[in-house]
Amino acid sequence: MRIMALPHVTGYEVLEKIGVGSFSIVYKAVSKSTKETVAIKCIDKRYQKKSFADDVVNEITLLKLLQHDYIVRLIDFMWDVKYIFIITEYCDQGDLSNFIRKRHKLSEAFVKTFMQQLALALRFLRSHNICHMDLKPQNLLISSKPNLQLKVADFGLSQIISPHNPAELRYAGSVLYMAPEKLLHQQFDARIDLWSVGVIMFECLFGRSPFCHLTTKQITEFMQKKSAYRDSTKYEHFSTMRKSTICIIKVQCSRANNI
């Protein structure tokens, strides 16, 4: 197995690899000047299409604009012949997907805190007419300092949506968390992020996506049919919060079937 050398990033000591994406690798590093621990997303720009380069520029542009407690903070960005480096604050608890996996599912106290923080971040985005477009547990980072905080990350697919700047009908994102309007190539607005929030909340409480047992084709067919959402889980003994979350998914699916 080939071991890749750690990248050289001017002004930073790269310590270790902490994540791998479809088109990038994320490293933990330390600033040589401030001694702050940071995360560096290393993007190989040699083999990417123009649309991907546009996504990178879009992410950097939005992160420079968005300063909020529950949105990951951009520290710097740079590039060389091979790579683009996006340097952000380091979130020591990783992403929400791993956080859930380690605990199988989250307590309602955790979920309430995270959903409140996510709601504040989305309200801030909406105030700037920004739709994230790819909300999922892998794009929500968690920091424990000074206290447990959820932070929205990865704005590569985000768009500024307003009556004067309608959303582009671009099929990109994660199907398990994708709103039916987008999945079915129909007109949509910033409310598609709320669909993703409902699915994320379900996954936090139950340890899985409500659609994890379906293929992409089956999810698409389900969204096209006028059929109610069904889940085999026995939930008579569940708390009000868990029952309400299942009801939210049912209502969302009912709305999808009437688009």
UniProtKB/TrEMBL annotation:
GO molecular function: ATP binding; protein serine/threonine kinase activity
Gene3D superfamilies linked to this entry: Phosphorylase Kinase, domain 1, Transferase(Phosphotransferase) domain 1
EC number(s) stated in the UniProt entry for this protein: 2.7.11.1
Domain (Protein kinase) ranges: 12-259
GO cellular component, one term: phagophore assembly site membrane
Cytoplasm among keywords: yes
Annotated binding of ATP, by residue: 41
Annotated Pfam families: Pkinase (PF00069)
Catalytic activity: L-threonyl-[protein] + ATP = O-phospho-L-threonyl-[protein] + ADP + H(+); L-seryl-[protein] + ATP = O-phospho-L-seryl-[protein] + ADP + H(+)
Entry-linked InterPro entries: Atg1-like (IPR045269), Kinase-like_dom_sf (IPR011009), Prot_kinase_dom (IPR000719), Protein_kinase_ATP_BS (IPR017441), Ser/Thr_kinase_AS (IPR008271)
The keyword Nuclease is assigned to this record: no
Keywords: ATP-binding, Cytoplasm, Kinase, Nucleotide-binding, Serine/threonine-protein kinase, Transferase
Cross-referenced SMART domains: S_TKc (SM00220)
One BP annotation, GO: response to starvation
Family recorded in the similarity comment: Belongs to the protein kinase superfamily.
Protein name: non-specific serine/threonine protein kinase
Lineage of the species this protein comes from: Eukaryota, Metazoa, Ecdysozoa, Arthropoda, Hexapoda
